[in-house]
Amino acid sequence: MHADDPLEDFDARHVTLNGVAKKVYVSGAGPAVIVMTEMPGISPHVARFSRWVRDAGFTVYMPSLFGRDGAVASAEEGAAVYRKACVSAEFRAFAGGGSSPVTIWLRALAKLAHADCGGPGVGAIGMCFTGNFALTMMLEPAVLAAVLAQPSLPLDAPADTGIDDDTLLTVRQRLERDELTVMAYRFEGDQYCKAQRFAAFSQALGDRFISRVLPDSAANPDTAPFFQRYVSCPHSVLTAHLIDEAGQPTLAARDEIIAFFTLRLSAGALEREGLPALAGKPMTASEPTMKSRP
User: What does R_g of the chain's alpha carbons equal in angstroms?
Assistant: First the structure.
């Protein structure tokens, strides 16, 4: 995980939606899952997570949103990517800006992916800078499973969701109508995604928001240069701070997310248990130290 990843097992496609072109890395077969990268770009850790999702029976769509694809960024390069994203018109990194405009493009990507891959619908997961994007994507009817991994926007307001009130209300109404849930993950001591943010999401979405809080001791200390310099707390549950060993809380979180996608997106999912859509019941964590609370 400390060497660049050539991403050779992904098909690099240039996708134009709403007049905007982006590169999207696609791999696998089965229902689509949109994997949105964390800072500072599609790292080998992000690609590894996408491969885990792919190998579980899904078609992964991994859009290039910022940074150098497949790179282990230096601290300086990562910081430059971060600064550029913070002032980009596509992203609203600070409080008061509402939902990031790039989510409109991502919703169109989800619609396209559903048309290409079929199945009951599409999954979406955002990480860190893109964490709350997965929730906004629930405005697209094709998206049936959203996961928020350490959602870090807005950067300057830990108790804010980074999503405007009207969108949150619309998403909550959709979750209740279709009996869906949203999964969310963070480390207990994360300074970029604090407990206040999960509390805000919980207040906005009620029992449709299912949160998991992992102990700081579960974080992998062996991280890339950007994380070593700029991310001094446990943060990236599924990538940089994941410990790929049996019995680890981070691996249990990965397995639960893949099970969540399987539950929502597998063939016959909408008819299972006799419900119009799958029930919004909390999932049981396989690791007892992974707490279900804001």
Answer: 17
